């Protein structure tokens, strides 16, 4: 699959005025940051989920060393298409913090949904990240981008 758009997230982006909680997921060799209003719902080998003020996050890891960035991008776009968004705000190929993949952002029933599929080209570990919040919450967009760009390899 040809890369039509390359979006490089700025890893230096930070929450302005938000305290952060740092998480390390040793089983998968990653760390990430969440605003201090987030509370864990699920934290096990299969999933990390948390809820913040009007926002939900899920990180689903999976192992498959046979896929590449075009596979994960196509699969991510397929998931976005199956959701039948009322409006699609962005679809991009992404590369940041040593990860590659695809990203889609859309709106369904007043809820904004970020879907990101990431591979670590240096391992068999891959991730799907889903973040949801109300479409009209402009601060949540910045917070969602900050969450995504905080994901990094240990």
Jot down its keywords:
single chain; 154 residues; alpha+beta; Protein Transport Mog1p, Chain A; 2 helices; 11 strands; disordered N terminus
Q: Count up the domains.
A: 1
**SSE class:** alpha+beta
- Counting H and I runs of at least 4 residues, what is the number of helices? 2
Helical content band: 10-25%
Q: C-alpha Rg, in Å?
A: 15 Å
Strand order of the largest sheet: 1-7-8-9-10-6-5-4
CATH architecture: 3-Layer(aba) Sandwich
Separation of the first and last Cα atoms: 29 Å
Taken from the alpha-carbon principal axes, the silhouette is: globular
Low-confidence stretches: 1-17
Oligomer: single chain
> Main sheet, how many strands, which sense, barrel?
8 strands, mixed
Class, according to the CATH hierarchy? Alpha Beta
The SSE order reads EEEEEEHEEEEHE
Give a concise summary.
The chain is α+β, with helices and mostly antiparallel strands and 154 residues long. The chain has one domain: Protein Transport Mog1p, Chain A (3-Layer(aba) Sandwich).
């Amino acid at each position: 699959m040809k890369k039509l758009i390359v979006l490089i997230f700025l890893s230096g982006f930070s929450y302005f005025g938000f305290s952060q909680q740092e998480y390390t997921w040793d089983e998968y060799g990653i760390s990430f940051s969440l605003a201090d209003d987030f509370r864990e719902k699920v934290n096990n080998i299969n999933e990390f989920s948390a809820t913040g003020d009007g926002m939900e996050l899920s990180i689903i890891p999976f192992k498959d060393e046979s896929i590449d960035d075009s596979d994960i991008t196509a699969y991510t776009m397929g998931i976005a298409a199956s959701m039948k968004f009322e409006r699609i705000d962005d679809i991009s190929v992404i590369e940041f913090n040593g990860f590659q993949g695809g990203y889609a952002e859309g709106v369904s029933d007043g809820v904004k949904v970020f879907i990101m599929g990431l591979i670590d080209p240096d391992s068999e570990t891959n991730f799907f990240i889903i973040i949801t919040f109300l479409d009209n919450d402009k601060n949540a967009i910045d917070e969602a981008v900050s969450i995504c760009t905080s994901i990094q390899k240990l």
